[in-house]
Design a protein that fits this description.
The chain has 235 residues and is mainly alpha-helical. The protein is built from seven helices and seven strands; from the N terminus they run ααββββαβαααββα. The protein has two domains: 47 residues; 155 residues, no CATH class.
């Protein structure tokens, strides 16, 4: 009986020591080491790829934002604020209806097939409501209307695909250089800047393919709008 108690106590003590040692190693030392390496070598990415302006964080370069006017009474959806560059459509986003004490958006896709609303592979002039064709045609009409300025109308042929289609997350932070350049005249007019000044901002914020061959050229909308605000403030 005494031997059994002694063995039990010995095993209990060994297990307790192992628990304490592993808790210190995996619960304290390892997280501190990983955090130290991340903060030393990848500080920006480790902290969420924050974008700062006027001494405060205004967002993350990895998450797209909306640049809309305040919602007015009677409006179902806010209108875009035309003084800012606009990102891609966010048709798949949802709202938080479970824990309503937080104002949250739920990332997601529309799950509409590529031929949703199409007839014989083409979108008809009046597609069924709620289909992909209806969303794309409505977005194309809005982009053409919003970005047309006196003397420089935008036609459907001028509009790149990313201007009228959303991504799987609905939160893509980037647009194509073609879509950014399409918005230059409208942005310049609404901010009292020259077209050349705004075009230079787009060129300065155009990122090339990673390593020269991965992905596509892109423009981060948040970073571009921060630079636009700073440029407009100097005038």
């Amino acid at each position: 009986m005494n031997n059994s108690l002694v063995n039990t106590a010995r095993l209990f003590g060994a297990g307790l020591r192992a628990l304490l040692v592993l808790s210190v190693l995996t619960g304290v030392l390892y997280p501190l080491a990983v955090t130290g390496v991340a903060q030393s070598l990848f500080r920006g990415a480790a902290n969420g790829s924050e974008v700062r302006a006027d001494g405060r964080t205004v967002g993350s370069s990895l998450i797209g934002q909306s640049y809309d006017l305040p919602l007015k009474k009677g409006e179902d959806a806010p209108r875009p604020d035309l003084k800012w560059f606009q990102g891609r459509p966010a048709n798949g986003l949802g709202t938080n209806s479970v824990n309503t004490q937080y104002h949250l958006l739920l990332s997601g896709a529309t799950n509409l097939a590529a031929d949703s609303g199409a007839v014989r592979g083409r979108c008809p002039a009046a597609p069924a409501e709620g289909t992909l064709c209806a969303q794309v045609l409505a977005a194309r009409a809005a982009v053409a209307r919003d970005n047309s300025v006196p003397g420089h109308p935008v036609t459907p042929a001028d509009i790149p695909p990313d201007a009228v289609t959303s991504t799987g997350s609905g939160l893509d932070p980037d647009i194509s250089p073609a879509y950014a350049l399409l918005q230059v005249r409208r942005v310049a007019e609404h901010n009292g800047l020259s077209v050349a000044e705004v075009r230079r901002l787009v060129d300065a914020h155009t990122e090339r393919r990673t390593l020269g061959f991965i992905g596509e050229p892109r423009v981060n909308v948040l970073e571009l709008n921060v630079a636009l605000r700073e440029e407009a403030a100097r005038h």
